[in-house]
Design brief:
Length: about 60
């Protein structure tokens, strides 16, 4: 086999690597956008529970 024939054969893992990198980048991007929303929502729920317990006089 010559070098030209070897160059024509695609690396079967190359597309998988690109797809894997793309999926990882999409997941990281979605975490970056969703994380502040989730944390703000969690803090709001904790604050509301605190107010509820405070009003009921449990704690």
């Amino acid at each position: 086999m010559t070098n030209k024939e070897e160059d024509k054969i695609p690396d079967p893992l190359e597309n998988f690597k690109e797809l894997f990198n793309f999926i990882i980048s999409v997941i990281l991007k979605s975490i970056q956008t969703l994380f502040p929303i989730i944390t703000i929502g969690f803090l709001a729920i904790v604050f509301l529970l605190y107010l509820l317990f405070k009003l009921l006089g449990i704690s």
